[in-house]
User: Fold these one by one.
Assistant:
Number 1:
Amino acid sequence: MEPRARLVRSLLRLILAAALLSAPVFLVAEEFGGEAVLRVLLSNGVCAVGCWLLLRALAAGRVELAARTLVWGLLLLVAGLASSNGEPVHVNVINFMLVTLLAAVALGPRALVVAGSLSAVVMLGIAWAQAVPRPGEDLLEARLEAIAQFLPTWCVVVMVLWHHLRSAQRTA
């Protein structure tokens, strides 16, 4: 098996294990109601089934399909969950970072920039919609403050990763 296929297989196995092992943790951590249970079962179930299907595609030699579907499918899942879970945007930054790192590792610098940019846009939208002004603060100020809490660091991290990948390509 070629190195990239081994990498993608390892990533898929790790994410499959995480989806299966974290489901009970999420069920205990969430308020144990019908909606929370359904949300965990759907998100973790979709992730687990998706990884299993991608492992099958990978076994059939479809490395590129498996890698791309993993990254962009996870980005859709994370964006959907982050947009609907009602949690502050900063709680979801780590999930977007995971997908952005996967894009960098599995697909390269261009995918890193696309995943990082799309993630930033989704997080900007969430921060913009969720901002609640403190007494004496206007809504725009609250929105800008929410965005400033994650966006500059987010951009620096994505650019550091991009620079590292580009440097590695030049020296290879």
Number 2:
Amino acid sequence: MNRERSMKVVSILGMIVLFFSSCQKIMEFYSLNSSVETKTASCRIRSFSSQLYETLNRTVVQYDTSGNPIRIVYLADWYPDGKAFEYIEYDELGRMISHEPDLLIGNHRKYVYEGTSRVPLRDTATDFQGKKYVETFKTDVKGRIIEEEIRWIYSPPDIEDDFEFKTEVHRYYYDLQGNRQVNPFDHPWHKPLQYSNRPSLYSLHPVWQIIHRDYSKNGINNVIYYNEAGLPLLFEVDEFAYWQPFLDMNQHSRVAYDCNTSVK
């Protein structure tokens, strides 16, 4: 009798294991964020340009031997000597630890990590006046930044502040397609953001994701031409459409890439 009962228990346990194993395979197959998905060719942004009246503005991204962006060159008439530079530095683990745009472009940020994490815990931002802010991040289970708290910590003695900086908190969430959403009532369209089924520019390198605080897998819809990897070559101007910021790129920009020869 005991043997017969033991056999029944073993049989039931086997069925449970088989059931959950099958469920797991089904979930992996249908999961929009699983590894079972189409991957684009390995590409990196070489440059982008836009025409503003009679002036052609061009931005060039330079990389190290590991494929990490290390310098961005901005070419435009209104910069001193017609150009401005932006530098990115890395630690021995290949993580961005310093992002230094020209003071005319943005704040200099130094990033801090915990252990071997690939996502920063916080950064210290210094603006053109020498004011300093601490920007602290919270992430989800996928390591994506979903909250940023910006807190003022210092102003140089010779700077007279005519307003009190109040701590800012920005929160995001990601939909089932892996694209960033914000509170729709914070924006004039009052509805979730709509994305294409093409890859986003942020997905081309972790640095772009951290700089823009955006890990969206897909790009915007207002694109006229794509390359073979599904990346935008020319945008469609639409003042009412959502725009994914990327350095100084705008809706008039044409983008050039370096890609491998095949799409996996």
